[in-house]
Amino acid sequence: MPRGQKSKLRAREKRRQARAETQGLEDAQATAAAAGEPLSLVHALTEDRPQNLPAAETPSTPEAPQGTTEASAAVSCTNSDEGTSGQKEESSKSSRGTEGSRRDPLNKKVVLLVQFLLQKYQKKEPITKADMLKFVIKKYKYHFNEILKRASEHMELAFGVDLKEVDPTRHCYTLVSKLDLTFDGTMNEEENMPKTGLLMIVLGVIFMNGKCAPEEEIWEVLNMMGVYAERKHFLYGDPKKVITEDLVQLKYLEYRQVPDSDPPRYEFLWGPRAHAETSKMKVLEFLAKVHDTVPSAFPSWYEEALRDEEERAQARAAARARLAAMASVSSRATASNLSHAK
Fold first, then answer.
1. Rounded to whole angstroms, how far apart are CA atoms 292 and 284?
2. Residue 11 exposed, middle or buried by CB count within 10 Å (0-12, 13-18, 19+)
3. What is the DSSP letter of 233?
4. CA pseudo-torsion sign 246, 249, 250, 254
5. Helix axes 193-208, 68-75, angle to 10 degrees
6. Read out DSSP for 147-206?
7. Which of 61, 229, 280, 291 lies in disulfide reach of 240, CB 3.0 to 4.6 Å?
8. pTM of the entire structure?
9. pLDDT, tens digit, for every residue of 200-214?
10. 61/72 Cα distance (integer angstroms)
11. SS3 at position 139
């Protein structure tokens, strides 16, 4: 075969391989576009922080009174203005944000990187900087840190997972759930990953209402995010089933009828797995990240979270003391038995 023809065949094969390697990313991007912008949820979470919330730079802002309305505003991901004009304004903002993201080439790379990270997570493959540069970032390598930072924020807010660098020398990363997964690890399965972000929002609504939150308030907040009980969501599937069945069966949420309610009304509480695998402080940190602020910007809830952390620390210390005492008693009993045996 002539040398020129061999070169053409090799070039063609390289192009075929490159297409195969990136086909999954392109398909994911097309699917996301058909869904109406894959990061629309994250845009809602990050771009429209409620104006009545204290910012990180102004911690001295007087605290708003606690209650249902304030909790909804704090956890919700859109401005708190009500009425038709407010909804139209939000719709306009969302439209402008989507158009801006399509024009911004870095945002396109962020979308692709999020899809790439999800694929790696699902396939349980290592995540390396080299692969991200080769298959996603490409000619935008000088913007790698910015693209990675934005993609990491999207992964955290939409999916409830953190991107951690586990090998600084080889620049290897891993995705870690914001839950400790101390039980059977069910939520670590790739198909359940989107539930973690949704769960953190619901836990936040419950926390900011005390020990329980009415079901109608949960949906009031989720509706502000574009998540509706009777409408399939491109990220969460059937949200009502996820919240009232899946997360309840996994014991992350408790769903019960309000006593003596007629007609029946329902409310949510933290389930035992939520208490074991996360904390009020972690949930508050997540919500603060949603609003681009710090936990102390929510003074009363921050104080409650601090008290919870202290109680948890005391409980852990007491448990360690009990184990140490039991080990000491066991050791003395063993020594005594050996002595008598002699």
1. 12
2. exposed
3. B
4. positive
5. 150
6. HHHHHHHHHHHHH-EEEEEEETTTTEEEEEESS---SS-GGGSGGGHHHHHHHHHHHHHH
7. 229
8. 0.61
9. 999 999 999 988 999
10. 19
11. helix
